[in-house]
Design goal:
The complex is a heterotrimer of chains A (300), B (243) and C (355).
Chain A (H helix, E strand, L loop, with lengths): L1 H30 L6 H18 L10 H26 L8 H23 L6 E3 L6 E4 L2 E4 H23 L1 H11 L1 H6 L4 H27 L1 E3 L2 H16 L4 H20 L9 H12 L13
Antiparallel strand pairs in A: 1-4, 2-3
Chain B lengths: L3 E10 L2 E11 L4 E5 L6 H8 L7 E6 L2 E2 L5 H7 L1 E3 L12 H10 L1 H6 L6 H12 L14 H13 L5 E5 L7 H16 L3 E5 L3 H5 L4 E6 L2 E6 L1 H6 L1 H8 L4
Parallel strand pairs in B: 3-8, 3-9, 6-7, 7-8
Antiparallel strand pairs in B: 1-2, 1-4, 4-5, 9-10
Chain C lengths: L1 H10 L11 H17 L3 H26 L8 H18 L3 H23 L4 H21 L1 H4 L5 E2 L9 H28 L2 H11 L1 H6 L4 H27 L1 E2 L6 H14 L5 H25 L1 H30 L4 H21 L1
Antiparallel strand pairs in C: 1-2
The chains are: A mainly alpha (300), B alpha/beta (243), C mainly alpha (355).
Amino acid sequence: MLLEEIIILGTVTSLVYALLALGFTLIYGVSGVINLAHGALVMVGAYIFGALVGFFPSLFPAGFSHVAVVVLAVILTTILTGIIGSIFYRLTLHSILGDQIATLVVSITGCMLFAQLIWLVFGATLTARFPVNLFPGYRTLLGVTVLNDQTLGAVVSIILFVSLSIFIAKSRTGMAMKALSQDIEAAMLMGISVEGMYMLTSAIAGAIASIAGVFIASIAGAASGDMWLSALSISFSVVILGGLGNIKGTIVGAVIFGYSVEAITLLGGGGLVASFPFIVLIIVLLIRPKGLFGKHVEME
Amino acid sequence: MHLLEVEGLTKRFGGLTAVNNVSFNVDEGEILGIIGPNGAGKTTLFNLMTGYMKPDSGKVRLNGEDVTGLSPDKIANKGLARTFQVVRPFRHLPTIANVLVALESPRGRRKIEYIRTPERKAMEMLEDVGLSEMMLEPAENLSFGDLKRLEIARAMALEPDLVLLDEPFGGLSPIETEYMVKSIQRMHLDGYTLAIVEHKLHALMQMVKTVLVMHNGEKIAEGTPEEIAKNDRVVEVYLGKAI
Amino acid sequence: MSVKYLRRAYVSFATHVYDVPPRMLAFLMFIALAILPLTQLNLTILERLTYANMIAILAVSWDLLVGRTGQISMGHALFWGVGAYSAALLFQYFGWPAWMTIPITMLVGVGIAVGIGIPCLRVKGPYLALVTMSLPLAVVGFLYYYPSAFHADTGIRLSALWPASFGWTGSFLANYYLSFALMAVSAVIIYKIATSKTGVVFVSLLDDELASKASGINVTKYKLLAFAISGLFGSLAGCVQGYFASSARPTAFDISLSIIPILVTILGGIGTIYGPLVGSYIYYLLYYYVFPPIIRWIAPSYAASVGVAGQQLVGFVIFLVIVIIFATRWPRGIARAIVDKLDDLQEAREIGEKK
């Protein structure tokens, strides 16, 4: 029983974590920016979605099924969060590109800024919980209870990873992003607008982050005022473990991380789960900062 | 015993052998010039000698003591000082403080005779290179030529047994080059032993007694400037195969 | 003419090492802080100023490590928390009084600082920042995981600093003057270190580690020294504040304590030593006494609906925005930007005069 639980829940959790980390690694891969505000965008997504679905059903045309409302809300959320992420990048990080320390300081300040704004707008505080729900209910697989939101999250994660990889490999914009990740100057010489591409990347990363936020909150049943910190720390650990900027590495990192977290929880170490991302981060950074596959080379 | 003995120094980067089995000696009071086309491995050689890179094989001996692979600060404290090709000043510090850093090192502290304070000694070093006026200026305000002279002042503050100058003339105007030549000659007269990597052959050849030529990581010739100028292989390496 | 004078006046505001800070300003600030309670015996203000004093110590310890030596710490909360908990645990398990726990705690702070400094030596820039940021956060989890040892939910009680005869007002006053004295002493010590030869070597590490090595400096030794000093004062701050609050709680490791020193130092001028001090007080001044009234004035009904706490939150948001603006537009500090601007004006004048 335990084994099945670890395997199935581990898979699902890993995929959701991978989704969480995807935006973070995308930005780093394309622009070399470690955007700590990522955690806040996850939270922003969860809260906006929760607000739309929970509090403003009147916004949606009457007679819409729950599914339709959810889909519409998700679309709105991703667009809004993408715009927010993009604007934040352009207003702040763009002017300090290349200064890694300033970027860290500004992005963590921005992260706190978003968190505080959410607290202001939604009246949230550190411990207050803001109900967020996609599709309540669960299924059982091999005797293991899996929430519908978890399953959906895992599926969406796979879809997004695949879509993004195809996008980067095949589309013109995607190839431009890949070019930027390899050699900025050459890319500029080819006529690629660095500013535009970075803004687009931030938008996509923000959108993905918001989707991850929606799922994380739904699985937990609610969004909380400190979810930015756990979102950020998990994204970090996953990305550092797998290697910054490397999409495949992110998946591997997420898998290792997700299974470990499930295993620890199911084996009774639930309390340590909060510290776990930080411990992983510290160990990896001290032993092998590049992570398993890292090297800020290309995105794969 | 030679002041500096370099024996079989080799360094590989992946498939590329940057320095290949290079050996030479430097005696006290000598000025050695190290020349060679770009990519010959000169700066790598310097880095190997001063501890910034660890050689794959070979030895470096200073005053008979094996200093191979020691950290750069230990090597500096043992008496082997270097300047950098691309100047590396301490930008936020005033010029005099740049020199004071070296005087804070163990060797620096030893070399300040008890009658003088570090500040006095630093001022003397700056006077020697003509930077006294800029003493309190933050180093980042100095011109490029001044910064090159500051590099030398910093190295000399350690009163080293051997000074490695990495392209001291790089980027200098003709007047600045002349000044630098005079500074280096004066250092030599004061009894310092020097090894100089340089591209500006005209300036270099008038100063040095011995020249070592490198190409593709190997030492291909060693001798007086006159001998080197007549060496067919050297000419070929610099100018391409005989027309 | 006036430009030259202004420039000279402002040169001492710029981020140099040998600059004398505006001695007058610092002196006045100290005087003001010293006599304030005598003019205005308001316990709330006293308590806030006391806290501000301790944050000032934390911030200045951060500035020495980061602004002067270039070792990026985004986890200074670690020292604060270690300070609070060391004292609390010593009191809880051995019953030691404050005059014993405080010095020991400072030593613990040094030990922890060196302990994390050693592995962190080989980690660069952003990675170092991330590691340091994670450390206090990892500790919090452990505190909750061993509730019997750490009493995370209630916090660990700390003994009172002053005898009961001091009374309520008396102990507040005593707290304040203790915090003020500690802040003044810490500031002076750190300033002296920063302007000593050791401080000069610290800046060489910030500017160019490789060149520092070439000058014979044992970089490792100096980095660890910077960590140790920073840890010593950081844990002193957290420890004494723990006494003021009468308990050590997991919030002592909160990320806000890692971020606030950074914010106030950026505001005040990174690397200047007086910057974090001035910044701390300005921050709390703004947070408690400037922003809330402004918000009440601009949007009275909104302000009324969210109450004072809400107003302070909005003020904090404004403060964060200000810091972001400062950090992106003037990464080297606003004082520097002003000096550069004055330099440009000066040059333009001289060129104009030559014609």
